[in-house]
């Protein structure tokens, strides 16, 4: 059982500067615990009078007294006590061990010290104990801790030295809902019963979910395990994967391979969240080894008031890095086998067909080169869209934003209409959508050569969608909200 007074003092020390505590600031009762230790007296000192360099000498009178002599001026000399010179630091290992123990968990002794942001204790029960530190940017620290937990894919406690968990609630709420993360104040650990109950609920929820997914044969390493219906996880994952990918650019196997597999799955989750229909049994994740598309998505036909009726959209998704893939013709035709498969459908001719790439970044020139080859293999009425992962993340964000949701609820617009534009290159060339084409500057990316822009403009069925475009859309929607533009209305 952890003492509530000790926990209160520890919390305040952890909030200020756990790596350098003056003895005057160290609460007495912490001295008797293993949670703090004395630091060796430093070599260099500063003169309290002028701030210049100073040296320390024995006083000769007592072991507890020292002379602090200024090296800049002979007149600056003071006597200091040993106590004044001594500083302490928080010992994370015993503290984290006791926190885990209080929660009914057995620590493995394996501590990842990422202070001042956070430190993590692993446990035999596979629950992480994550203690937030004193870093100036609290939100960032919590976000880093959350990312760490997500990478490890196990449930975790986030323990804050602050007085309440309220400030971090909006950061962890989506994960708390999924039952992955429980946030507690350090003070809470004086109530052992409460904390242990929390552990039980954390682990049982996790186990329940595990059973559910086992039944569906979805492995624990599958992101769907935690992405289902949780847009914040999708967004966070898209950002994390980008960072991971930056770090593993030159790696062909290992983490590099993992990033791609994860990326495919996150993209699928994102499309599902955006109300696309995912074709069951299609997609790279389920058919690893064969060169099929990563996913096949569908979008129902829709009618836009005063505009036009849009046919059903069928898209083959390929999640990869457009800058490094070998876009050879053979690979394309294999990917597009799907279109052959659905040819038998009597509505096939009316389908709008789409070859969609989700990429972290792209080289417009290479995309154009590749598109020129690919279009030779496409069936009629097939467009190609290159969508950046950031753009996809912003779409998920838009779908989740309270502003958008309330507008949707008021019937002011239908986000599905908005998204449809990004997946249908031909819309932009139709006269009735000329205003949409104008709204988005589809041809200008910073750093793109004029020739490349001309080439791009000449391709009616190729569309590149960047995050800027999506954000511009969002702005457009917000400013149009009070107009009666039928583009955004629900029929
Ligand atoms: Zn001085």
Offer a concise description of the structure.
The protein has 491 residues and is α/β, with parallel strands linked by helices. It has 18 helices and 20 strands. The chain has three domains: 21-90, no CATH class; 92-215; 252-488, Restriction Endonuclease (3-Layer(aba) Sandwich).
Euclidean distance between termini CA atoms: 62 Å
- CA gyration radius, whole angstroms: 29 Å
Shape: elongated
Small molecules (ligands, ions, cofactors) in the structure: zinc ion
Helices, by number, come to 18
Q: Strands of the largest sheet, in order across it?
A: 13-14-17-18-19-20
Compute the average pLDDT: 77
The CATH class designation of the largest domain is Alpha Beta
User: Per CATH, what is the topology of the largest domain?
Assistant: Restriction Endonuclease
Give the number of domains.
3
Strand content: 15-25%
CATH architecture of the largest domain: 3-Layer(aba) Sandwich
Number of strands: 20
Poorly predicted parts: 281-292, 486-491
Helix content: 40-55%
By secondary-structure content and strand pairing, the structural class works out as alpha/beta
Question: Major sheet: size, sense and barrel closure?
Answer: 6 strands, mixed
**Multimeric state:** single chain
